[in-house]
Specification:
This protein is mainly alpha-helical. The longest helix is centred in the middle third of the chain and has 53 residues. The relative contact order is 0.03. The chain has a domain of about 45 residues. Helices cover about 50% and strands about 0% of the residues.
Length: about 120
């Protein structure tokens, strides 16, 4: 059966430190041995994880370098800026409205709009 340690109710901060016993040299040696065993068991896993992280880092660096090369190539292949163009614009592109097609070109925009009517369900 497991033993449960009951801590006394703390009435003052100083009384809690008085009731705790100091670890003995034997307890310290036992705890040290347990920690050493635990860390020795964990080392192979940690080494494997470190190797995995190094591989992932090398892959990410290779992807970044490949992307940079593609960007440089695209910039070299781009036509030179024409007259009136200063090269790449700083900031977000401005909306000129050229890509927007009017909804209905048959009607005059100044004409009054017809009121919409809903169908009646029977």
């Amino acid at each position: 059966m497991s033993e449960t340690k009951e801590e006394p109710a703390v009435e003052e901060q100083g009384s809690a430190t008085e009731t705790q016993k100091e670890p003995t040299a034997e307890d310290l040696k036992k705890q040290k041995a347990e920690l050493t065993k635990f860390y020795k068991e964990q080392l192979p896993l940690l080494r494997l994880q470190a190797e995995y992280e190094e591989c992932i880092t090398r892959i990410d660096i290779a992807k970044m370098q490949r992307f940079e090369i593609m960007m440089q190539k695209a910039q070299m292949m781009a036509p030179p800026p024409g007259p009136g163009e200063d090269g790449p614009q700083a900031g977000p592109p401005q909306d000129t409205g050229e890509h927007v097609r009017p909804f209905n070109t048959d009607k005059d925009p100044a004409a009054p709009k017809e009121e919409r009517k809903l169908k009646k369900q029977e």
